[in-house]
């Protein structure tokens, strides 16, 4: 056999073995089997991910918050433009975004020639190297799972290094102009499309990523026509001018056309995500009008914002994994009773100190139910916030018997359990 | 009696990475619940640090932020004057390192001189200390003696003669795997655990307020905090026993 066919045979065998393992896991009731499928594949063929990425048009989405929703937007935009050929597209829709999750998703649709993939922040560099993506969307950077990541800046450094190494073979980057660390990383790319999102979370970028001097922030003042702005007090790094921008709930594209997004998912941050997806879709050859028709069909990407039934209780599920995410999710939770589910499994971050960076004080006057394995930590936080609460650690008990619909905000692990319990 | 108590939160933008602002939230509430009039002053680099405060708080942050913070604090000088006046200081993690004599940053182990408020020295350790930590507060007994938190630091700290360790490690790394945790000299306390530490250890919060006010405070009973402490101590000890 030639080297090429041995390589292909190995990938086929690995894919087959992975499928068997995945099916066994699924039948044993351990979830979708996607993760174990990918793990088995990569064990048998460590180069499987690279092989699966060959000969595809690829777009990658990464960042701390909004990856899954933005990837769903972008995939929906491309599907809309592909019409009856929509099955040419592969997408890791369930949000499994590490090496094995990506390999698993790609192996399920080996015939697809377009891949729209969300990527964990740590995998971006490998994907740039292995897949030579056309487009890379970089959304934002904030503190998240610090027990694992330690330094936010080191992730930005790895993105920058991968983009520099790829040079002219690298992707066109769609980058959030309001995030200094994203801007600094993106500047290493051959070409950048900037999206002005007016992001308001600034707590994770006080020093210049280039020179460590203080960053100067200019607060937006709509009456004076002043947008939010930032620049470095030491070097030339400054907020680039947006090619696309989000303005009063609309998206202004590079031709200055104003689009009313009319999305099927709530929240100002999702308009930011949609603006990034719109820019990426255009780079992939999809007109904004077509892209938006597709994006509006996204209503509950991987269970986010889904409404589910828990016995007689109707609940809407919101995911928040870190202080920046909570700052966006808390204003969305408008129900009289709000359920907050906290855990500290590996995927949630084992240190729950971040609870004290979230403005739970704003829930004063509402009925709050603290649940999840770290409900007691939240209870103490709420006591100091002088918010009335009930502590019901068991998720099912916490959701039982609410006569009015409730909003639930959960960290990653309880969120996945709630999806399973509510079948969404 | 003067009811006004000023808590100064130092450079949240640099030293606020791990929820340590919660230490201020805890002190403010515990003062208010006792009828004091707490005032929170949050200071950022470039703004003058008041030297009239009663308690000063420093939290955790990344290397570059640490260097920037120590420079700004030295230039300002307000913290030295406050300590001379007898104000209490709680310095956590990166904050603990910068109130010491010196510490190192980056892969080149560049030595940065600290504020010298605690006679301790920090250098990069062999492995990063990440995980739940339980220690025993030296000189305390009863339930209050157990200090619980989450440590996450690459630097290892060695104590000089001018300080005493705050606590003795039961589970975790602490200063440098030598069985000690934190350091105390006069009204200045340095320690590694987040949690934030004062949220998980209300007796330590009241001790710091006592240092600032010059007298002990009567305890406050909060069942949810006691329950959290029992739960944390039990779970951490159980998972430690299982890992042995």
Helical content of chain A stands at 25-40%
The CATH architecture classification of the largest domain in chain A is 3-Layer(aba) Sandwich
Reported CATH architecture of chain B: 3-Layer(aba) Sandwich
- The rounded distance between the terminal residues' Cα atoms of chain B is 53 Å
Number of helices of chain A: 15
Sheet with most strands of chain B: 6 strands, mixed
CATH-defined topology of the largest domain in chain A: UDP-N-acetylmuramoyl-L-alanine:D-glutamate ligase
Major sheet characteristics of chain A:
9 strands, mixed
As an assembly, this protein is heterodimer
Question: Which class of secondary structure composition applies to the elements of chain A?
Answer: alpha/beta
Low-confidence stretches of chain B: none
- The whole-angstrom Rg of chain B is 17 Å
Q: How many beta-strand runs of chain A?
A: 17
CATH superfamily of chain B: Class I glutamine amidotransferase (GATase) domain
Total domain modules of chain A: 2
Q: What's the helical proportion of residues of chain B?
A: 25-40%
Please indicate the percent range of residues of chain A in DSSP E strands (runs of 2 or more): 15-25%
User: SSE order of chain B, as H and E?
Assistant: EHEEHHEHEEEEEEEEHHH
Kindly report how far apart the N and C termini of chain A lie: 47 Å
Strand numbers in spatial order across the main sheet of chain B: 2-1-3-4-12-11
